[in-house]
Write a structure and sequence with these properties.
five-stranded mixed β-sheet; alpha+beta; extended; 747 residues
Length: 747
């Protein structure tokens, strides 16, 4: 599908407005979006039906030429097929005329784009994450959306209305005056409109081609370099030598200051770790440790917040006690009654401090809760029976009951406590319901309602605090688990990197040094000149090995690629192999040589080193051909020798899937040679797989060995209409498994 290009001097801009449709218009909007979803599902089913039919026919043994043809998924082909099916298909025949054709075109266009993305992803022509086969959209989860490209699409002159095909004029929540003014002056042209239901309301987005006046550059000949920074937003330097700094936005500076403050708090709260960080996992471990410290700090702050909250509650309890005792002290009842009421209220204080406060703080649920509530209720009943002024203690007693008992029991006890004053007054009046009793009853009913609401609110707050504490604890455990796993993964990755580098550099160089020293020792008496050449070559190999060791310890580029191209490094590798082993090594470059990404160059160089080492140790060859081929979208290295070879017949090696394991297997029924399993070819296969390339090894006994590495460089275009299943084979996985099996036999 061609991308729209605006006219010169124009740009494409979107204008978005919220809609206020009436009930009928909202039903029409939902019908159009549902029609788009139905058309999308129909297109997916129609295209995939041919795929499943071909797969079934292939299982019956039908030849390729007799299989069902692929159904095309381009938008014109889908439109043509849908127009032919909508009159007879029972899913559309009864209601398709009720919606605009643009609704169905929206679903068909989305299906065509989905199949196109899937095909390009399978062919390797689409960047990013692998795209799977298009799936059906469900009515419950699908996003309501529909796009209009033809018909009546305009912003009305009524300032707050837009017109869409088949939907009519719909009121907007915001004025459309900006878009309307541009359209009326001829500086904008509406291209399409998309309606969508998001966050509980409908909105429409107009895609318009808008004319822009581009300002002339004041100094067109000056060159400005811009460097994005951290302390400042940007640093700019022009060709005249002037340097200007653009400060960070104020909200960013504030956020950075808060981050530094929080980092200091976390670093001071947690214990230090004296162990040295491991490269590859140190960043993840440090971040996870800092996050775990933050969670623990949050938990500590939550506990401190609960303590502060309980301090406020203690103050409230003391205030309620003092006010109630003061009212009782000034009441008009006999002095003996006042002494009994004040004594009962005073006994509540140690009862709360000794039993109730620990129960409420630790939120326990046992017999102590019931004992505390019963004692509290009894003491209050005694005080209220001798002096009704003691009823004001309910302002402190009801919250305590709510915090110490279950919700239902607490509500019942609070209701009974509010009825105590009414009962006492009624008994004192001889059972007569006078005006004072009715007034106190109304006040008690109001107190009951407030007590129930306050109690339920307290219970809810307590429950939310408990859930928050549980979530914090779970988050802390998960962060600690992530930190531990990240640390282990970093150690494993670093070990694997060092193992590959040591094998590809130091191990191969040590083997060469041993061979050269043995050759010099054998010729020191018969051919001293040749022995001296071998010894000088030993010194050169040792120096190169030292440079390589320093490079891979510092995780830098190999020394042979820092100052030369890949072809020059491979040519030196071929010359070195000739000097060390006496083999005839021929090197050639095919295609137009061009710069390569550093990752690809390192992989090809290491592959050439490993292949040369295998030839020198195992092949017993006479000649070696090394060819570096630059092709369209890829680069390949092919190493061929005429040595003894080895058998690679089908069935001799097992793959990871057949063994049920995760790593490549070795030759069945055959012992490992040399160093017990070999790391060379398996390490080479792992390197190639990291760059998305393919490693293949072909060999026969007595016919030599061919090792080829192919690495993709850029997107390649493949226009062959071979269907989705022919887009990409499983060559990469099969070759990797095969090479893994060859690794043990070769090494």
């Amino acid at each position: 599908m061609k991308k729209f290009k605006p006219q010169p001097g124009f740009v494409v801009q979107a204008y978005r407005f919220a809609l206020d449709p009436n009930a009928a218009q909202e039903r029409a909007l939902r019908s159009h979006c549902g029609a788009a979803r139905a058309a999308y599902n129909w297109a997916v089913a129609w295209v995939e039906a041919s795929w499943w039919q071909r797969r079934a026919e292939q299982s019956y043994g039908i030849g390729e030429e007799a299989l069902t043809e692929w159904r095309p998924w381009s938008l014109p082909a889908l439109r043509k097929a849908f127009n032919a099916a909508k009159h007879t298909d029972p899913r559309f025949a009864a209601w398709w005329e009720g919606n605009s054709k643009e609704a169905y075109n929206t679903g068909l266009a989305n299906a065509a784009a989905a199949f196109d993305n899937y095909s390009k992803s399978k062919n390797g022509r689409r960047r990013g994450k692998r795209v799977g086969m298009p799936r059906f959209k469900s009515k419950r989860k699908a996003r309501l959306s529909c796009r209009f490209t033809t018909g009546t699409i305009r912003a009305e002159s009524g300032v707050r209305h837009v017109t869409l095909p088949r939907l009519g004029t719909i009121r907007t929540h915001e004025p459309t005056v900006k878009l309307l003014a541009r359209v009326q002056t001829g500086t904008a042209r509406i291209l399409s409109a998309t309606v969508r239901f998001e966050r509980g309301r409908w909105c429409v987005s107009f895609q318009a081609e808008v004319k822009r006046g581009f300002e002339r550059v004041a100094r067109p000949d000056d060159v400005v370099g811009i460097d994005l920074g951290v302390k400042t937003l940007a640093v700019m330097a022009d060709s005249t030598g002037e340097i200007r700094e653009v400060p960070n936005p104020r909200h960013l500076s504030t956020a950075l200051a808060d981050l530094r403050r929080a980092s200091r708090v976390v670093s001071r709260a947690g214990r230090g770790d004296a162990r040295a960080p491991v490269r590859g996992g140190s960043h993840a471990v440090g971040c996870s440790r800092m996050q775990g410290d933050t969670v623990r700090l949050d938990a500590r702050r939550a506990a401190e917040a609960r303590m502060r909250w309980f301090g406020l509650w203690d103050s409230y309890f003391v205030i309620c006690y003092l006010l109630t005792t003061g009212l009782v002290f000034t009441s008009g009842v006999p002095q003996g009654h006042r002494v009994v009421a004040i004594g009962a209220l005073t006994l509540i204080v140690p009862w709360y401090a000794g039993l109730g406060r620990p129960v409420m703080r630790h939120r326990t649920s046992d017999r102590r809760n019931a004992v505390f509530a019963a004692g509290l209720f009894g003491l209050f009943g005694v005080a209220a029976a001798v002096d009704l002024m003691s009823a004001f203690a309910l302002f402190a007693l009801v919250p305590m009951l709510m915090m110490s008992l279950a919700a239902r029991a607490a509500v019942v006890t609070a209701v009974l406590g509010n009825l105590v004053p009414v009962t006492v007054l009624w008994l004192q009046g001889g059972g007569a319901a006078g005006p004072l009793v009715l007034f106190v009853l109304l006040v008690s009913l109001l107190g009951i309602a407030l007590s129930v609401l306050l109690g339920l609110w307290i219970k809810r707050v307590v429950r939310q605090n408990e859930e928050h504490a549980a979530l914090i604890e779970e988050l802390r455990q998960n962060r600690e688990r992530v930190a531990r796993l990240s640390h282990q993964a970093g150690i494993a990755a670093e070990r694997e990197r060092l193992a590959r580098e040591i094998h590809d550099t130091l191990a191969q160089s040590l083997i060469s040094i041993i061979s050269l020293v043995q050759a010099a020792d054998a010729e020191v008496e018969t051919a001293p000149a040749t022995a001296r050449e071998h010894l000088s070559l030993v010194g050169r190999v040792a120096k190169e090995s030292l440079v390589e060791a320093r490079a891979f310890v510092a995780d830098r580029t190999p020394a042979s690629l820092q100052e030369s191209s890949l072809a020059q490094a491979l040519r030196r590798q071929a010359d070195g192999l000739t000097a060390q082993s006496g083999l005839l090594v021929r090197f050639a470059v095919e295609g137009v040589e061009r710069p390569l990404p550093m990752a690809a160059g390192v992989v090809l160089l290491r592959a050439a080193q490993e292949a040369g080492a295998n030839v020198r140790k195992h092949a017993e060859a006479r000649t070696v051909d090394m060819v570096l081929r630059f092709g369209e979208g890829q680069v390949a290295l092919r190493v061929t020798d005429d040595g003894r070879g080895f058998a690679t017949a089908e069935g001799e090696f097992t793959t990871a899937e057949e063994r049920g394991g995760s790593g490549p297997g070795g030759p069945s029924g055959r012992a490992d040679e040399d160093d017990g399993g070999g790391f060379g070819l398996r390490g080479m296969a792992a390197r190639v797989a990291e760059t998305g390339g393919v490693l293949s090894v072909a060999s026969e006994r007595g016919a030599g060995t061919v090792v080829e590495v192919r690495i993709p460089l850029a997107e390649t275009v493949d226009d062959s209409a071979a269907g989705p299943d022919v887009a990409r084979t499983d060559a990469t996985r099969a070759d990797t498994d095969r090479v893994g099996a060859l690794g043990k036999g070769r090494r």
